[in-house]
Amino acid sequence: MDPYTPKRGLRNGHLMTVYCWGKPRSFPRLPPPQDRYFDVEKGVRVLAHCHWQKDPPVRPALLGLHGLESSSSAHYMRGLADKAFARGFNVILLNQRNCGGTETLCEGLYHSGLTLDADHVIREMAREGIDRVVVAGYSLGGNLALKLAGDYGDAPPPSLKGVCAVSPVIELAECVRALERRENVIYQWNFVRGLKARMRRKSVTHPGHFPIERLADVRTVRQFDDYFTAPHFGFRDASDYYHRASAMRVIDRIRIPALVITAEDDPFVPVDPFRNPELTSNRNITLVVTRHGGHCGFAADPGDGGHDGYWAENQIVKFAERLA
Hints:
By secondary structure, the chain is α/β, with parallel strands linked by helices. The chain has helices at 13-22, 75-86, 116-127, 140-152, 172-179, 185-205, 221-233, 238-245, 277-280, 311-323; strands at residues 34-41, 44-51, 61-65, 90-94, 133-138, 160-166, 258-263, 285-290. An 8-stranded mixed β-sheet has the order 1-2-4-3-5-6-7-8, sandwiched between helices. α7 packs across α8. The chain is globular, with a radius of gyration of 19 Å.
């Protein structure tokens, strides 16, 4: 891995996180995406925005997974697509269920450990001749990527060559507790605002399916998961959901190459779980813990050769190139 030096003035995790979240980015060399729908199971259709090379089966593919209440249009998803496509990859940016304006496409919700959709995409691509796939996820998507690999254990699909995770929420309970700290109120507010807005949209497309009246009581992510996510998916409560959906439960079972990038100054992804021997002793995992980087940030000063300063995106593409 290339060494990481944070962008000047961004050695504070909060500043890095907000800067990368709010800074406009453009990608003039990336062609417009094509819509691709995947019918995962009855009542579940998901939308991916795809950038196909001229002869897709000849080229490897990068499958991107976004974070909580984000979408395929997130800056890091498009930045990753821009770099991977330029290096010859097909790029599939998958929206989680209901994200990216897709509330009408499925009856249910999504959660932080729901790997079924990514698995379906990998297998469908293999049937179409794309037999070299690397999965890359950010935050919630990073947890999904690692949990996917761990769930496969000794029997991953032959086409899955590796996974990458940036700022992954591998121990959900600890991340939610961190969100509840006073200094993180703005992140909590932003997530809750998005979750509540989505449920209101969902109540329009699927009236009567969810206890929308409980939204008035929701002030935290934990409350949302207690009232909506956990009961919808059959978890006992939010705590049960966090335990069972965390990639840490299966991190020791990963048998394909995995890249994990996180920062010590991430505001709401504590670094301690990344020191767990079940992760650090797994020889299939390349773990990179930087001092700075914030949450899904890792901005650096632009360098020579067209390097735009988004360090983690570059590391993912270089890792994927070695595998695929």
